[in-house]
Design goal:
Histone, subunit A, 62% helix, 148 residues, single chain, 7 helices
Length: 148
């Protein structure tokens, strides 16, 4: 079925929020308050573009014998437009960099669990108490040889 035939049921309705379209238009040089017709046209263009891209990617997936669309199908659908393909590759490269950085940074590193607390406990001896008692006996506490 042709992509535009399916989209016909949503004609007249906006698929994207007004605020999102306004931010997009402003980011690309439009006035802070865009006309409603401008937002409606942009919404229709974006919807048609995404629908056609997804249908083309779906055809690629079907030819490969799959039901689900993979990122490679979207790359294949954009193969004739180097600008789209370059932006898609850039996005995927950035995604892999972020995933690698997350693997390097262990987010649970600073959390202490009960098992880790027991492993960190060390037995204190009498010598540990003597050092503290000698500093307090003078009535003044010292830090690194300086009186406070």
């Amino acid at each position: 079925m042709e992509p535009r035939a399916r989209v016909g049921k949503n004609r007249g309705q906006q698929n994207f929020a007004d605020q999102d379209l306004q931010h997009f238009l402003f980011a690309h040089g439009d006035t802070p308050n865009s006309l409603e017709t401008t937002k409606r046209v942009l919404d229709e263009l974006l919807t048609d573009f995404i629908t056609e891209l997804c249908f083309e990617a779906h055809r690629s997936a079907q030819l490969s014998g799959r039901q689900k669309i993979k990122p490679d199908d979207i790359k294949f659908a954009c193969r004739k437009n180097p600008e789209y393909l370059g932006k898609i590759n850039e996005t995927f490269n950035k995604k892999t960099q972020i995933e690698e950085a997350r693997k390097l940074l262990d987010q649970n590193d600073d959390k202490i669990t009960k098992s880790n607390v027991k492993a960190l406990e060390e037995p204190l001896g009498d010598a540990d108490d003597d050092d503290l008692d000698s500093r307090m006996a003078t009535g003044r506490s010292t830090v690194a040889g300086k009186m406070i």
